[in-house]
């Protein structure tokens, strides 16, 4: 295990190499050595990817891939719901997409529960 390799998502020093990929056991983030060197040179230019690994950008249209309960409410965002005009945010709690969902309103989503439409 190399001590100079840290996870770019959570900063864990417990990342380990599995073949050509690096894996963080704390948050589950996976990246290649090429990604690590590119991130080091980009300095903070983090990409937000959907569940399929596609890079998301402001204004994209995404589709929710599973039913999501709305915290503090009895509402549910159904899988297959299209969300237009997303904004990428730096949510500290993992919610990195700000959007307005038809019939529900403004809310934040995690990118792992959407796919690019």
TrEMBL record:
Domain Protein YjdM C-terminal: 48-117
Domain Protein YjdM N-terminal positions: 7-32
Superkingdom of the organism of origin: Bacteria
SUPFAM superfamilies documented for this protein: Prokaryotic SH3-related domain, Zinc beta-ribbon
Classification via InterPro entries: YjdM, YjdM_C, YjdM_N
NCBIfam families per UniProt: phnA
Family named by the database record: Belongs to the YjdM family.
Protein known as: Zinc ribbon domain-containing protein YjdM
């Amino acid at each position: 295990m190399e001590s100079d390799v840290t996870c770019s998502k959570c900063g864990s020093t417990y990342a380990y190499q599995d073949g050509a990929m690096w894996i963080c056991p704390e948050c589950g983030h996976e990246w290649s050595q090429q990604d690590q060197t590119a991130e080091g040179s980009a300095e903070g230019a983090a990409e937000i990817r959907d569940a399929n690994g596609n890079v998301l950008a402001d204004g994209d249209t995404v589709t929710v891939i599973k039913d999501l309960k709305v915290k503090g409410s009895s509402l549910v965002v159904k899988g297959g719901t299209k969300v237009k005009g997303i904004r990428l945010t730096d949510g500290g709690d993992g919610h990195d997409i700000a959007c307005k969902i038809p019939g529900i309103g403004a809310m934040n989503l995690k990118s792992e529960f959407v796919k690019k439409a």
